[in-house]
Amino acid sequence: MRKEDKSTIIEQIAATVKEYGHFYLVDVTAMDATATSALRRDCFKSGIKLMVVKNTLLHKALESLEEDFSPLYDSLKGTTAVMFCNTANVPAKLIKDKAKDGIPGLKAAYAEESFYIGADQLDALVAIKSKNEVIADIVALLQSPAKNVISALQSGGNTLHGVLKTLGERPE
């Protein structure tokens, strides 16, 4: 490969890292062509961009960026595929669903501005909530006290209405 081609690829990888907020480094060494194609289809359906890269080119692309990605450098061994996405936990869920005998295996991830190194971090990555899930939780927490007050007022009103109705129907 010519030096010009390498520099173009490095720039493309760096631009993709900037474009997406989260990325996962996945070991696809033991996957055959059929399994890789199935993984690509599943990634496309989930809104994940899958890119198989040379480790040295990815390393140089990460070095060219302003942020320090040095914790990920030790994970760049073997055959590496990179999953780019805008929602932090989507690739983790996909890997967990697809993983048979550790294939594809998680090497490392950069999600929510944190580094997750090793396959044992997969459950932690699955548990990360997306922005919309966090907003929904906050709205539910804010609505809970108001709902309690309204239900208490409604039940109290029904009780008071029942007492007045009973007193009104009582013969004198």
From TrEMBL:
Family assignment from sequence similarity: Belongs to the universal ribosomal protein uL10 family.
Cellular component GO terms, alphabetical: ribonucleoprotein complex; ribosome
Alphabetic keyword roster: Ribonucleoprotein, Ribosomal protein
InterPro entries documented for this protein: Ribosomal_uL10, Ribosomal_uL10-like_sf, Ribosomal_uL10_bac_type
Pfam families for the chain: Ribosomal_L10 (PF00466)
Domain of life: Bacteria
Known role: Forms part of the ribosomal stalk, playing a central role in the interaction of the ribosome with GTP-bound translation factors.
Organism (species): Bacteroides finegoldii
Protein name in UniProt: Large ribosomal subunit protein uL10
Gene responsible for this protein: rplJ
